[in-house]
Amino acid sequence: MTHAGLLGSDIPLAERYDLALVDLDGVAYRGHEPIDGAAAGLAGARAAGMRLVFVTNNASREPGSVADQLTSLDIPTEPGDVLTAAQACAALLATRLSPGDKVLVVGGAGLLTAVREAGFEVVSSADDAPVAVAQGFAPELGWAQLAEAAYAVSRGAWFVASNLDLSLPTARGFAPGNGALVGAVRAATGVVPDSAGKPASTMYEIAVERHGAREALVVGDRLDTDLAGARSGGFAGLHVLTGVSTARDDVLAPAGLRPHFVAADLGGLLVPHAAPVPGAEGWWTCGDAAARVVDGRLDLGGVDVDPGAASVDLVRAACAAAWSAVDAGEELDASSVPEIHVTRSEATGVGAGR
């Protein structure tokens, strides 16, 4: 999947792809709260024959706990439908370590379980001479655990992070993520960790192999992790506008972070997706929306971008115009790119794929 622009699909994505690799925070839920349209979108995708695997950079929780939360939000899920960064971290450790090797785990229950199940001995002190340090997010982590990690890494232990997300979405806003905590150990030791989580495509590849998928679709809210992982792994990626990255981020995205499809939310799995079409005088059109770049500035064709009242087709047209200009060597003035908020009707899937 090397196409650098948006793709079109004349059939719903749930019919085109047999496996969806779905992120959690900002996609299926936000903190402990549901996201409007998520349950209905995923239920419709399953009804169309699409298999769902929930792929998360959260390494603090065990798959069963994640499955229980999803089920409580009307998204029925089994533990086998969940793949965490903790499991990917353990798989990465297994590429260099031997069964029984000591690993200092700095993280929550999910990472502890995954490392043990991979056959390693879990230790909690640098004085136990671990050969590796595995660090994942847990809200209870404090200075003492980070210090042990720093001591072990300074003594030569292999430093592996479950993921490097700097922030994570919660019901109250964005909080420091594992990447921020890993940064403390990196600052103390000068050692850059290897990472198992997104944007590495390791988890996507594990899921595809595990489920024998014909063609998989990555679904996420973050360009720098979910969609970057899709690009690096050669998977198609759907960006849903319910989490961290915005429509404006899409328009300004460099090639390695660009989605292949854009939708307001998970209802976008259930509709066709119109592909932007180039036209005269540099215009790109998608449905009733149009955009072009003139003298380095994005022109939305006179459309008054009213927050909460724009079409997702406008996002698509703007992306096509901006990406085409940038890829041709033109410099895009970021100040000319407004925030584009998709209407409520788009967020429920009505008209989302015009």
From TrEMBL:
Pfam families (UniProt xref): Hydrolase_6, Hydrolase_like
MF terms in GO: phosphatase activity
InterPro entries: HAD-like_sf (IPR036412), HAD-SF_hydro_IIA (IPR006357), HAD_sf (IPR023214)
Gene3D superfamilies per record: HAD superfamily/HAD-like
Cellular-component GO terms for this entry: cytoplasm
Keywords, ordered alphabetically: Hydrolase
NCBIfam families per the UniProt record, alphabetical: HAD-SF-IIA (TIGR01460)
Name assigned to this protein: HAD-IIA family hydrolase
Lineage, top ranks: Bacteria, Bacillati, Actinomycetota, Actinomycetes, Micrococcales
